[in-house]
C-alpha cells in the first residue's frame, strides 16, 4: 500500500531540521579522526561524543538525521499510544467514580498531533545543531571505497577510524502475493490521516502488540496474526498472557500459531487450527521484524565482514577491519534506541582512546509499551534454563497489591 507523508507544515519543519533542502556539504578535511556512516541514534551519539572530546568528525546520512527513533519508531509510536491510552481511560472513567460520555476520537487530529510532536522534537537531531557542535555533516549515499576512506556525493572522506551505524529496516513478511505496495510498515503507518476501518497486523512482537492495541482503542477493528503460539515470544510466558488478555479486552482479535499462505490488497489467507481462513481489511501492517542495512555500503572494499544478520563485530564492537567499528541495529541483536546509545558510547571509548570496554558486560533492559507495559532485564527463566543457570523464582500478582486496588488496576492479571 503506497502511502506518502502528508505534505503539511509539520512535515516541512521535520525536513528542514533533519535534511535542509538548501544544505551544502562541506569541503572534507584532509583526514578525520572519525567518520560516522548513519545518522540515527547510534551515529548521532558517536558523532556528538567524539566531537566533545576534541576529535574531528564527519557524519554521513543518506535520508534524514534522527533515524528510525525520530521518524518511524519511538517518537511517533509513543505519541500515538498516548492518545489511545487517553481514549481508553475515558472509557473506564467509571472505575474512578467519574461519569464521562463515550469519547469522540478525531483520528485525523490524532495523527496530526503525532506529526506535530515529531517536528517539535526534531531540533535535537538537526543538521544545524550538529554543525554548531563541530560535526561536518554530509548528506548522500555513503560508500566505503577502501579500508580507510568513504565516498559521498563524489567527495572522499579519509579516516583514522570509522563506525558503521546504518540501522535496520522492516523485514518483508515473505507472504506470496503480498508485495510491498500492498502493506504498510512502521515507516509508513504514521502517514495515515484517516482511521482504518479494519487493520490487519502481521506479527505479535512488541511493535505489533503496541500498534494493534493503539488502533483498537482509537476505534479501528483490529485483527492480529502471528506465527508464534503466543504474543511477545521473547518475554516470560506470564507477560505474554497478560498482554494477550489486555489486547483481547480492547477488542483485538488474535490468531496465534497461524501461518499466512497468501496475500493480496487488503487480504490475507492463513492456516489456523487446521483450516484456511481469510481476512479482508483496508490496511495491512507488517510488523514481522527488522533486517540490518548492510547493502550498498562498500563493506567488501573496506574489508568488513557481514552476513544477513548484520555487520560482524567482536566484543569491543570492532569489525574485521581494525579501523572500523559498528554500533546499533546494524550489528546488534538488541534493536533498541537505548542499546544503540550504549554501543555508541562504547565505540567512542574503544575507537578513539584504545579502550577495552566489552559489550557483553552490558545488561540491556527492554520494555513493550502496551497497556499495561511489560519490561524485562537480564535472563528470563527459559534462557536461564538453556544456559544451565539455576534460579529461584518469586512471583507477586500486581492485581493483589494495595496500590493496584487503589488505582483500579485489579484487572491486570496474567
Give a structural overview.
This protein is α/β, with parallel strands linked by helices and 414 residues long. The chain has helices spanning 9-18, 41-52, 67-71, 74-91, 107-121, 127-133, 206-217, 237-249, 337-353, 381-386, 402-406, and strands at 32-37, 57-61, 136-139, 142-146, 149-152, 155-164, 168-170, 198-202, 221-226, 253-256, 259-264, 267-272, 275-280, 283-286, 290-292, 306-307, 310-311, 324-326, 366-368, 374-376. The strands form six sheets. Strands 1, 2, 3, 4, 5, 6 and 18 form a seven-stranded mixed beta sheet that branches. It has a four-stranded parallel beta sheet with strand order 10-9-8-14, with helices on one face. A three-stranded antiparallel beta sheet has the order 11-12-13, with no helix packed on it. A hairpin with a 2-residue loop joins strand 11 (259-264) and strand 12 (267-272). Helix 2 packs parallel to helix 9 (337-353) and helix 4 packs across helix 7. The longest helix has 18 residues, at 74-91. The radius of gyration is 23 Å and the shape is globular. It starts with 8 loop residues before the first helix and ends in an 8-residue tail after the last helix.
Task: Describe the structure concisely.
The protein is α/β, with parallel strands linked by helices and 414 residues long.
Features:
single chain; 20 strands; 414 residues
| Total number of helices | 11
Mean pLDDT reading: 94
Largest β sheet strand count, sense and barrel closure: 7 strands, mixed
Alpha-carbon distance between the termini?
Answer: 36 Å
Number of DSSP strand runs: 20
Strand residues, percent: 15-25%
Low-confidence stretches: none
Oligomer: single chain
Class computed from helices, strands and strand pairing? alpha/beta
**What percent of residues adopt helix (DSSP H or I)?**
25-40%
Globally, the shape reads globular
Radius of gyration: 23 Å
